[in-house]
Amino acid sequence: MSGNSLLKRVDWVVVLLYILLVTIGWVNIYSSTFSEESTSIFDFSYSYGKQLFFIGVSFVVIIVIMSLEAGFYERFSSLFYLVAILLLIGLYPFGKTIAGATSWYGMYFFNLQPSEFTKVATALALAKYLSDIQTDIKKIKHQLYAFLVILIPAVLIVPQPDPGSALIFFALIFVLFREGLSLLYLGIGLLLVLLFVTTLKFGTIWVGIGIGLLLVIFFLLKRSSFKVPVFPLVALVIGAIAFSLSVNFVFNSVFEQRHRDRFGLWLRLEKDPEKLEQIQKSIGYNTYQSEKAIESGGFFGKGFLEGTRTKGDFVPEQHTDYIFSTVGEEWGFLGTATVIILFTLLFLRLIALAERQKNAFSRMYGYGVISILLIHYFINIGMVIGVLPTVGIPLPFISYGGSGMLGFTILLFIFVRLDANRLNEWT
């Protein structure tokens, strides 16, 4: 495909939305880390200078991605996955520990986080496997293999410890549902989440009573012509109670104290109002200050570089995981609404692109991109406004981070390249 032909086939709506989000991100990183001592936006001693550098590198990477043949990404997807797994394993002997997590390789003037690139490799590998088996995802052996592709990187990332990044990989399960996986799995997953939360909140005894009441109601309301499969129903009840019994062990023995504290704050497990307030001001300090910053912005915001809480460093990690609070304080409801609208438009456009693909690999990879970006967006904003526990998930294209910027850019523009080739086929 010639250069002019490729440019005509590129989806410029996605490119424009990407540029707008990256620009909004950099402006707010600049605002949250601004110092009057700096004389240049290219000052690498400040986060905004480094981020500007990585934005420049990302544009170079985009050119490289678009210049390669679309079939390259499918042919070498397994190799990318293998390299990514080896990089994750290499963190244990050679990784650099930051904030208690060994998730980075120390480079010359920045730190490389391989998990960001593993997301791309896993999405590619999963798309390759699913496109090879086509409609056989309903077979158990193929389901197990697909789950294994997702599970391996997650298992390697959890002990770093970085459960937040590991969680992202499970979003790829939605690709399997798009390709015909039974929704029964989704129902079981939602049931397990509900059991986990309700057990922590109310205890196993009340969960057992609730399950018993649901069974009684079910049998009272069922029609005589409706035959209930007894064995599966009994197995489901026993499994649910067994899972509920295991929750406290997992919560107290597997989770680290900081994770227990965050879930405890989120679910308001502490009954004493005074102790709860103390916990909010200590463990929940980031979220508390973030909520106050967004609330103080009002409808129009305080203005660029005018955020008092931002300038006063009230919100820790405000240029990374909590960048949305800067948007809320300085740009107000209009700013936060703009970010949400841009992301919504991006997701809708990506879904439309995925559905128009002629090649199965491209469609499946497209849904992998959507799944990864969507869970990042949902968890980050939910965390910042206090409706979800803090798990350390960046906001795509907006939060500070060189690895994140490069990883999200590669993830998105490989799909843009595949879409530009949608009318052609490759082997």
Count every helix, treating DSSP H or I runs of 4 or more residues as helices: 19
Give the termini distance in whole angstroms: 15 Å
> In order across it, which strands form the biggest sheet?
1-2-3
The radius of gyration is 23 Å
Helix content: over 70%
Please indicate the percent range of residues in DSSP E strands (runs of 2 or more).
under 5%
**Mean pLDDT figure:** 85
Query: Care to count the β-strands?
Result: 3
Q: What overall form do the CA principal axes indicate? A: globular
Structural class: mainly alpha
Taken in chain order, the helices and strands follow as HHHHHEEEHHHHHHHHHHHHHH
Low-confidence stretches: none
Oligomer: single chain
Q: How many strands, what sense, and barrel or not for the largest sheet? A: 3 strands, antiparallel
Your description of this structure?
With 427 residues, this protein is an all-alpha fold. Among the domains are: 40-72, no CATH class; 76-181. It has 19 helices and 3 strands. It has helices at residues 3-9, 12-33, 47-67, 71-75, 77-94, 114-133, 140-157, 163-169, 173-178, 183-202, 204-221, 230-254, 257-266, 273-282, 285-297, 308-311, 323-355, 360-384, 402-420, and strands at residues 96-98, 101-106, 111-112. A hairpin with a 2-residue loop joins strand 1 and strand 2. Helix 6 runs parallel beside helix 8. The radius of gyration is 23 Å and the shape is globular. The two termini are 15 Å apart.
